Amino acid sequence: MTPNDVLDEFRSAGALLEGHFILSSGLHSPVFLQKMFVFQDPARTERVCRALAEKIKEAYGPVDYVVSPAVGGIVPGYETARHLGAKAIFVERENGVFVLRRGFAIPEGARVVMVEDIVTTGLSSRECLTALREHPGTLLGAACLIDRSGGKADLGVPLVSLVQLDIPAYAPDRLPPELAALPAVKPGSRSLKS
Ligand SMILES: O=P(O)(O)OC[C@H]1O[C@H](OP(=O)(O)OP(=O)(O)O)[C@H](O)[C@@H]1O
Ligand SMILES: O=C(O)c1cc(=O)[nH]c(=O)[nH]1
Ligand SMILES: [Mg+2]
């Protein structure tokens, strides 16, 4: 699958949104990739995650465990793991901090890749990687469907992506006037209260 094929999947799923969005990092952007519109279609999800699994195999070799940050990473993590013949587990926030819960464990010597849906600043990915360092296993690197940082996000480990885009994102006090004029929405799950 070429980057354009992947973007076409997002486009035809209606997942390329324009407006005023507050991202997980607190940055504001005129573009949001609503990955859940892709993941609600299992056939579409299968196509993109099979392509990601192929890239992961090429970059890292065999993988035993895929670990993803909830919520957005769970579906692509599972589907990518299916193509890799790996287990799929996830970290979720406990008092705001990513941890492995539910009795999930990584065996000594397991080959581990972190799979994220979208990377913007890399903050969620780095938080997930920090959680993983508390556990056994060999961390091979990270992977995501779309890196919207234009390759600038630094995870401290290698990152493979299906698509690299450079999408503008602004600090709240640096908004261009046309963006500030639009009402802002915050689609992600960080800071949601139950
Ligand atoms: O690289 P970053 O700046 O961290 O941004 C990308 C993260 O933002 C989204 O998660 P979010 O926290 O919005 O919640 P979600 O996974 O429930 O969508 C997305 O799923 C990534 O995890
Ligand atoms: O940075 C984010 O929070 C983010 C950006 C994006 O395009 N899609 C998404 O789900 N999260
Ligand atoms: Mg997320």
From TrEMBL:
Domain Phosphoribosyltransferase: 45-152
The keyword Transferase appears for this protein: yes
UniProt keyword terms in alphabetical order: Glycosyltransferase, Magnesium, Pyrimidine biosynthesis, Transferase
Swiss-Prot/TrEMBL cofactor(s): Mg(2+)
Any one of the GO BP annotations: pyrimidine nucleobase biosynthetic process
EC number: 2.4.2.10
Pathway named in the protein's UniProt entry: Pyrimidine metabolism; UMP biosynthesis via de novo pathway; UMP from orotate: step 1/2
Oligomeric form and interacting partners: Homodimer.
Family, similarity comment: Belongs to the purine/pyrimidine phosphoribosyltransferase family. PyrE subfamily.
Name this polypeptide is given: Orotate phosphoribosyltransferase
Species this chain originates from: Microvirga flocculans
